[in-house]
């Protein structure tokens, strides 16, 4: 058994991590906006076979997972989150003992992140890879996610690379050629290289270190920044120029 500690809690989630009832803020799986949420209710999902007895008030079945309904302040729609119990910063299913702070952390969301329509400024082939990778993250599959993000890079080469870049035999050489051609500035080239390396780790786990959820989530942030730079911001500038009299 792993003892809980009343002063021990889970570390705060990142600002762009999906919301749960412990920290009801973050990107909405429905509208995609960073938002605050109101907890509309919750109910047990997985019971652990234990019973909590309340002095003079009966007893109740204990549970390690529950679902919470959160209402987005942005789109006024509900999402459903399956959450896991932590006691003193330790997962209850791992043997945490009572005595620490009880917190709930989301592990599955509905609607599945990535189901919203992709940005129309991003080519369908590229957006499709990112969307599927985002869904992989939602079901705690980081290896699969980073492989899809690497696939997005390959699609970017096909969309934005020169004939010379497309003719290279490896993604490493293709990205290097795009940098040499000026289609990727050095900073973007570094991002792309990081995405490629982690994508390789996801595809070849026997020869490379395993991929963590934190690494996969960070990779998604890099991919989205890359797409903003290559597609979204230029399209916004072009529309703004076209709108001027």
The total beta strand count reads 6
List low-confidence stretches. Answer: 1-7
CATH superfamily of the largest domain: Nucleotidyltransferases  domain 2
Q: What class do helices, strands and sheet pairing give?
A: alpha+beta
SS summary, helix count: 6
CATH topology of the largest domain, by name, is Four Helix Bundle (Hemerythrin (Met), subunit A)
**Mean of residue pLDDT values:** 83
Largest sheet: 6 strands, antiparallel
CATH class value of the largest domain: Mainly Alpha
- Our count of domains comes out at 2
CATH architect. name of the largest domain:
Up-down Bundle
Shape field: elongated
Tell me the span between the first and last alpha carbons: 71 Å
How would you describe the overall organization of this protein?
- With about 240 residues, the chain is of the alpha+beta class.
- It has two domains: about 25-110, no CATH class; about 125-245, Nucleotidyltransferases  domain 2 (Four Helix Bundle (Hemerythrin (Met), subunit A)), CATH 1.20.120.
- It is built from six helices and six strands.
- The protein has helices at about 125-140, 140-160, 165, 170-180, 185-205, 215-245, and strands at about 25, 35-55, 60-70, 80-85, 90, 100-110.
- Strands 1, 2, 3, 4, 5 and 6 form a six-stranded antiparallel β-sheet that branches.
- Strand 4 and strand 5 (about 90) form a beta hairpin.
- Helix 1 packs antiparallel against helix 2 and helix 2 runs parallel beside helix 6 (about 215-245).
- The longest helix has about 30 residues, at about 215-245.
- It is elongated, with a radius of gyration of 22 Å.
- Mean pLDDT is about 85; it is low at about 1-5.
């Amino acid at each position: 058994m792993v003892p809980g500690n009343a002063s021990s809690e889970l570390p705060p989630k990142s600002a762009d991590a999906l919301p749960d009832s412990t920290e009801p803020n973050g990107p909405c799986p429905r509208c995609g906006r960073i938002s605050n949420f109101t907890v509309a209710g919750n109910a047990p999902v997985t019971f652990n076979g234990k019973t909590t007895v309340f002095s003079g008030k009966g007893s109740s079945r204990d549970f390690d997972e529950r679902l919470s309904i959160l209402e987005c302040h942005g789109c006024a729609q509900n999402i459903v989150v399956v959450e896991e119990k932590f006691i003193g910063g330790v997962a209850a299913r791992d043997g945490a003992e009572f005595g620490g702070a009880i917190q709930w952390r989301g592990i599955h969301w509905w609607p599945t992140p990535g189901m919203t329509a992709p940005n129309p400024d991003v080519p369908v082939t590229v957006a499709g890879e990112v969307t599927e990778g985002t869904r992989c993250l939602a079901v705690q599959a980081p290896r699969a996610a980073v492989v899809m993000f690497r696939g997005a890079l390959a699609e970017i080469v096909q969309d934005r690379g020169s004939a010379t870049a497309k003719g290279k035999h490896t993604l490493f050489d293709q990205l290097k050629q795009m940098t040499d051609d000026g289609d990727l500035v050095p900073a973007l080239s570094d991002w792309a290289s990081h995405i490629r390396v982690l994508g390789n780790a996801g595809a070849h786990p026997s020869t490379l270190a395993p991929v963590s959820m934190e690494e996969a989530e960070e990779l998604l942030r890099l991919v989205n920044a890359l797409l903003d730079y290559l597609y979204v911001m230029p399209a916004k500038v072009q529309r703004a120029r076209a709108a001027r009299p």
